[in-house]
Design a protein that fits this description.
The complex is a heterotrimer. Chain A is built from 13 helices and 13 strands. By secondary structure, chain A is an alpha+beta fold. Chain C has three domains: 177 residues, 2-Layer Sandwich (Aldehyde Oxidoreductase, domain 4); 176 residues, Alpha-Beta Complex (Aldehyde Oxidoreductase, domain 3), CATH 3.90.1170.50; 323 residues, Aldehyde oxidase/xanthine dehydrogenase, molybdopterin binding domain (Aldehyde Oxidoreductase, domain 4, 2-Layer Sandwich), CATH 3.30.365. Chain C starts with 9 loop residues before the first strand and ends in a 12-residue tail after the last helix. The chains are: A alpha+beta, B alpha+beta, C alpha+beta.
Amino acid sequence: MQTPRSFEYERATSVDHAIALLERLGPEARLVAGGHSLLPMMKLRLAAPEHLIDINPLVADLSYVRVEGNEVRIGAMTRHAELLASPIIAEHFAILTDAEKVIADPIVRNRGTIGGSICQADPSEDLSAAFAALKASVLIRSGTGERLISARDLHVGPYETAVGPAEMLTEVRIAIRAGSGSAYEKVERRVGDWAVAASGAWVQMSGDTVADAGIGLTALGVAHFCSPEAEAVLIGHAPTAEVIAAAGAAAASITNPPTDQRGPSDYKRHLADILTQRAITRAVARALGRN
Amino acid sequence: MQINVNLNGTEQSHDVEPRLLLVHYIRDVAGETGTHWGCDTSNCGACVVWLDDVPVKSCTVLAVMADKHRVTTIEGLAVGGVLDPVQQGFMECHGLQCGFCTPGMMMTARWLLDHNPNPSELEIREALSGQLCRCTGYHNIVKSVQWAAAHPATVGAST
Amino acid sequence: MTIIEETTSTTATSTTATATDTAALSPGGNPMGFGRMLRKEDVRFVRGKGNYIDDVKRPGMLHGAILRSPYAHARIVSIDTSAAEAHPKVRAVITGATLEGLKLAWMPTMSYDTQAVLATDKVRFQGQEVAFVVADDRYSAKDALELIVVDYEPLEVVMDARKALDPGAPVIRDDKEGKTDNHIFDWESGSKEATDAAFASAEVVVAQAMLYPRSHPAPMETCGMVAEMNPVSGKLTLWSNTQAPHAHRTVYALVAGLPEHKIQVICPDIGGGFGNKVPIYPGYVCSIVGSIVTGKPVKWIEDRSENLMSTGFARDYHMKGEIAATRDGKIVGLRVDVLADHGAFNATAQPTNYPAGFFHIFTGSYDYGAAHCKVTGVYSNKAPGGVAYACSFRITEAVYLVERIVDCLAAELKMDPAELRMKNLLRPEQFPYTTPTGWEYDSGDYPRALQMALDIAGYAELRKEQAEKRARGELMGIGLSFFTEGVGAGPRKHMDILGLGMADGCELRVHPTGKAQLRLSVQSQGQGHETTFAQIVAQEVGIPPEDVEVINGDTDNTPFGLGTYGSRSTPVSGAAAAVVARRVRDKARIIAAVALECSPDDLEWNRDRWSVKGDPSQGKTIQEIAMLSHSSLELPDGVEGHLDAQAVYNPPNLTYPFGAYICVVDVDAGTGQVKVRRFIAVDDCGPRINPMIVEGQVHGGLVDGIGMALMEVIAFDDAGNCLGGSFMDYLLPTTMEVPSFELGETVTPSPHHPLGCKGVGESATVGSPPAVVNAVMDAIGVRHADMPLTPAQVWRAMQGRPLRTDLAIE
């Protein structure tokens, strides 16, 4: 069985402690939460941090899903299974419930955390597109304070985020907006696999018209996991079949998916189109209470 | 690093390397070999154990992460020397052939029934979808869990 | 114990079936013979008390790890092991150079080729073994691998089998003197002239090229060994999860020049095999050398990636089929041209005279006179192997070919595929039937099995539903396959592996109290031998199955035999067990006659006792006779005491199980995703020793077939990188891709097997892939697309541009 290289192990007792450790130990230190992205890379010896800072003891502080004011706040150490089971999430953001059902498998979801997932910034990771569709924000803490940035700005590139070497993502915030609905559509080769392609849609309806919309795209080679082009097609229009088709086409037009064993580029681009259409259709139905 | 783990109800204390995987701790250090491993990528689920009360893939957890926690393996499933209904169900319904995936399957099945005593076939299949079996085609694994659900009282033979 | 009725099963029994009366129960509540019985081995498995190879621990044991080539084809310029050797926990570093000194750098394969144990000249596939490290623990062994520096000079690769024989293709096996190309063998079967004549006059000819892509058996437990050379006694003990312990022992003796009586192979519980654990792998030889060099026991256990990238793969057959028929759907001929990719070394484990295995059974289950096939084997820069994954020595490729092309013919003729099959199936009165390629099918009632499958499926209603859905633009498909398997290799005069005839020994020892031990040459990997073989003894000699201990997997304590693969345990070893049990019964008759003071001819057998004809009260049970056999009772001249027997069973023919399968799928027209909604499987393997276990074998094989049809493949990119080297990319079906199954059963006994039984271990793996593919093609209205039918492949097939699945997707 594959085994990681040796490393020094530290156990964080608080967020401040974790950040202090990151500052002290430097760039060869990595935080580990659920470990389901990092540890497999370490076993393959593709990653070999000199120091591992275990933040699992912070679960008491950083695992939560709660409503504050007009937004939902999700702690970074919230495990996937907890997000999936959350009635708050199911009520307000069905796209996350949809996505969580198809992230890895139930046992992995028991351990993997949402913060760990989005900080891995894998181009095939599902929550990044879902948060992008929801126009969520993420809270990033450092030794000098905290900053709130758009989830779309979190992702700088494949496996790269805006979180600095001595920073820690601690929370995701999503605004609750009346009359909205959302959905996530994914094609995978098999249950538990990474996405061949996926699309998430969030819409806020004003009467029969789309007042605001977010479209997130997974594994499709788009910047920031989102398609402002498709959103522009939707906003201000009634979501007719023609408009939805145009949004699907707009989403597909900006994709640049890699050809790999999950499928050829043309197929993935086709999926961007059809999955976006399906996600919008379901999101609209949910927004209008026609689920 | 010194760790203290409650393994199947017994307090254990060992000095381990931080990089030691929990599955290797359980098997090679604590000597309980009922937990297996079948891949390196968290796909197969042969290594499923409970960390505290939650099933995890012990190939993707460090032993040091189990320090001051409870770990339950297949060896801890029978209570008071009596087989768990899940264990009995796997025997009754031919839910195993080579037996390699079986401990992990049973740990998840027990957890499922603890939280959902009367699962549908789909719920059983979803609960076990992170665990691979090459022998049974899952058909009889599903039936075994259904059997255990239908026989919730401890009915097993003594160990 | 509670007996659960399998509600989905349907049974039809031939009037010629042997008796499988299960009315009587043993004191332990088990059937006194054939019937549903819970498995004896489960008692340990459900408690986590199985003992698998990685559970074996020996005092002072060291751990081995293998350094593997990152290149598919490269010359080794130099290997520097000094830093690894300096690692404080490393005990030995072994390279090809070390082994050359021991004349062990190369080993024979089971196809009379050679294979590098550790590369000396060049590496020939990605993942090939280059060096072996022995260290105090497995983590340190892995660390030390990173300290070995190998300088490679990359060479041009051969990844596309269709280009392996191109002029100017790089020669992979330049280690073989005078070798100037990548050709391994040409092999033919059937009559070319007769087949050409049948095609020349045929009304309809349909041709279809198809690939059965490279897949992998991927048992949940990888391969491994603990080797322990006792430097004092000179005895080498090998804990090995091999499917063929006796054959392995002989090969080690021949390869290493060690005395065979000083080698003991012990098989612990085996976590699945499926043919993956038949060959001898370099890691085994390295473990042995590691133990000899260090004087300590050495454990070596593969990673999953090592298992997938270097050990026995399956299939990789590029097939061009042509079928000839009359306009009204009578098949008149079939011909096939195959390109077989055997990888870098020809290491297929199959009977010597069968370089393409039993592929010549490609004529299938149909009645026609002309067939011909030609198979060309080639080397490529891929891992060696080819015969594995429950393939029955390539019958799975043959069945896929014929069942796919019959559907292509049905499409061409615009005929229902069930009707076309029914029209051409062999009739019961034609058995025993000799095929155009010379195989004698022992028994069968094919139309009955197909009709049962159609009935269970509700075939007419399914076609009606399909038509309604099509009208709404929904894609639903119904796929059939009918297979004839050939298992139980095999007659010794035709079949051997490395000169070892494929007969199997068996010993039954009855203790004075009437309890027994049965010693087998075959080796369970989950098939339940400890239960079913005890049931055979119970059936034949009346000892309750709970009183029969079945012993397998220890060469010092079991008779010689070739092991368990190719579904041969029941056809060969099961027959041997029946023969020894009958020998014990015959001897018991003599002893009973002495005790009862009558002639043996006056006695009749009744389940568990010999009693006087017409006076059942005058009799002796087998337990009483066992004690008498050890007593002071004076036996006739020439009759020795005790109740033991042994036998070697040399099967007169293969057995030919068969079945009819129907798969129902729904396809998402937008995404190409396939959902297997139903799977109906009617199997005929003769009488079932333990129906519960037989059904379990079928269930497992059906999921194998769905896996191969929909997701499993080991492809390579054009640089030679393996694209299926972990379970993240080599996808096995989960609970969610497969339905619960609907099984049916017909019983047509084998006329030549003592119990009438046929093997069943591979039937469903062989028979199910074409049913799935036929269903998907039926749904999307496309003539053919190669497996695996991933969402991308289905969508591209619908666009008329199917992918080539053995190479990187372009």
